[in-house]
Predict the 3D structure of the following.
Amino acid sequence: MDLQDAIHVGARPLTPAGWSELLADEGFVVTAHRTAPMALLEPRRLVADEGLVPALRIVGRMLRDPVALRRVRHMRRVFRRHSAHLGAISLLAVPTPSQL
């Protein structure tokens, strides 16, 4: 609930096995997966994802909008509080042969 309140979406954190099962239920098989620590909203990750100039624009807009700044700071606190249980995952999945 803490995560859903912070990011204002119906978050559905799952384990890698849980994501694989969800995809399998939809007719896919996971052929590769990779995990990494949660780094969303961390400055280095923001620059790596967006590029320096766009990241600076994002930060500039946050600094001019106190509501947005509070929301982002709240999200970062929640991400850090739950960092032992949150992470990034990428999955490569292909349709099962019966789905082709």
User: Anything to note?
Assistant: Residues 5 and 75 are 9 Å apart (CA to CA). The chain has a mean pLDDT of 88. The beta strands are 28-37, 87-95. The chain is about 55% helix and 20% strand.
